[in-house]
Automatic annotation (TrEMBL):
<keyword id="KW-0472">Membrane</keyword>
<feature type="transmembrane region" description="Helical">
    <location>
        <begin position="165"/>
        <end position="185"/>
    </location>
</feature>
<feature type="transmembrane region" description="Helical">
    <location>
        <begin position="197"/>
        <end position="216"/>
    </location>
</feature>
<feature type="transmembrane region" description="Helical">
    <location>
        <begin position="228"/>
        <end position="248"/>
    </location>
</feature>
<protein>
    <submittedName>
        <fullName>DMT family transporter</fullName>
    </submittedName>
</protein>
<keyword id="KW-0812">Transmembrane</keyword>
<dbReference type="InterPro" id="IPR037185">
    <property type="entry name" value="EmrE-like"/>
</dbReference>
<dbReference type="GO" id="GO:0016020">
    <property type="term" value="C:membrane"/>
</dbReference>
<feature type="transmembrane region" description="Helical">
    <location>
        <begin position="103"/>
        <end position="124"/>
    </location>
</feature>
<dbReference type="InterPro" id="IPR000620">
    <property type="entry name" value="EamA_dom"/>
</dbReference>
<feature type="domain" description="EamA">
    <location>
        <begin position="19"/>
        <end position="146"/>
    </location>
</feature>
<feature type="transmembrane region" description="Helical">
    <location>
        <begin position="79"/>
        <end position="97"/>
    </location>
</feature>
<dbReference type="Pfam" id="PF00892">
    <property type="entry name" value="EamA"/>
</dbReference>
<feature type="domain" description="EamA">
    <location>
        <begin position="168"/>
        <end position="298"/>
    </location>
</feature>
<feature type="transmembrane region" description="Helical">
    <location>
        <begin position="283"/>
        <end position="301"/>
    </location>
</feature>
<feature type="transmembrane region" description="Helical">
    <location>
        <begin position="260"/>
        <end position="277"/>
    </location>
</feature>
<keyword id="KW-1133">Transmembrane helix</keyword>
Amino acid sequence: MAAIPAPARALSGAAFGTLLLIALMMGANHVAARIAFNNGVDVATAVVFRSTITTFVVVALLASQGVRVRFSARHRKMLPAIGLLVGVQSLCLYSAVARLPVALALLAFNTYPIWTAFWSAVVYRKHAEKATLVAMPVILVGLALALDVFGAASGLGASGQWAQIGAGVAFALAAAATFGLALVLTQHEAGDVDGRVRTASTMAIAALVALTTVTLQGGFHLPTAPAGWGGLAALTFLYGTAFTIMFTVLPRLGVVGNSAIMNVEPVFALVLAWLILGQSIAPIQVAGALLVVGTVMALGLRKK
């Protein structure tokens, strides 16, 4: 989900509740995706459905609100690049969700602030803030605990644990890296584009990326059981609705873009995955998850 730093002023109760609702819906979206993946749907098919429907919803909003679409030469150059990155990020994140417990996939993805700082330094020579540098090792320690990198909680040992989680973690980190670059490019090259227009463009290109992947793999992989259709419908509805709320309700509540509060998404996913999928992790992994989420939220909510 593309993010722009939230304003420093305090949030109203309604805004805070709406942000939590969006985080809940995004966490539920990934749980629904796992249900779809367990019942015949592949990653590219899920991204095509999700991104295409969301594009139509946002375009309908633009039309109903009479938003004028104007792009500069720079926008016409950079928006496709941002959309391509988000398309790759979507495929990678769902690939991680298909291979890891949902909450752990989202936690590994939540390292994207580190990648944002990295890409800012590489692309724009912007040095990371002190708070970010302090947060980086804390996030990595929390992630190491959550993923049980030494296999202590699982009893598998380091090699056995990485044989199970290695591919999923690689996909989640690739998603974080591409998302971090997309955020940096958005901030520097497309921050002045209307958020609804930018989202419509990004989702449309992400859908094309996924559709190309579907074509290369020989066609859509549709659900093989009713639960799969339910999961596919739910992930599409939850994702599209969360975006609709973000761009219709939040601006009226005085919230611009995403807030760090929505980084509580992995916690919601952890609870939902336990209740619905029966996925559970060891207490030390829960502690690591809370450390990651708390650090990322503190980083996002700090006064600048």
